[in-house]
Design goal:
- The protein has one domain: Translation Initiation Factor IF3.
- It is 30% helix and 31% strand.
- The protein contains 2 helices and 5 strands.
- Strands 1-2-4-3-5 form a 5-stranded mixed β-sheet, with helices on one face.
- It is globular and about 30 Å long.
Length: 81
């Protein structure tokens, strides 16, 4: 499943949509549009924010300007490529 985050950033609606999507999907790709952010350090911060605000435990991988969030067991880990 794919999501996009634009100039409004991470809103409560984005979090609710992701929580709903994770009920039926194990992995979600989130593309960060040019209108939102293109700084690599900020992308890590956004990924941390998403993983902490979602219900459950998640790990993420950053590939370019895409964050891939996955459900995990008891511990959340992060991997950056």
């Amino acid at each position: 499943m794919k999501f996009q985050i634009g100039k409004l950033g991470v809103t409560s609606g984005v979090i609710e949509s992701l929580n709903s999507a994770f009920k039926t999907h194990k992995s979600i790709r989130i593309s960060l549009l040019k209108s939102f952010e293109r700084d690599r350090t900020k992308i890590n911060e956004i990924a941390d924010e998403l993983a902490s605000k979602l219900r459950g435990n998640y790990k993420y991988t950053i590939i370019g300007f895409t964050i891939v969030l996955r459900k995990v067991g008891k511990l959340a880990r992060r991997v950056t490529l």
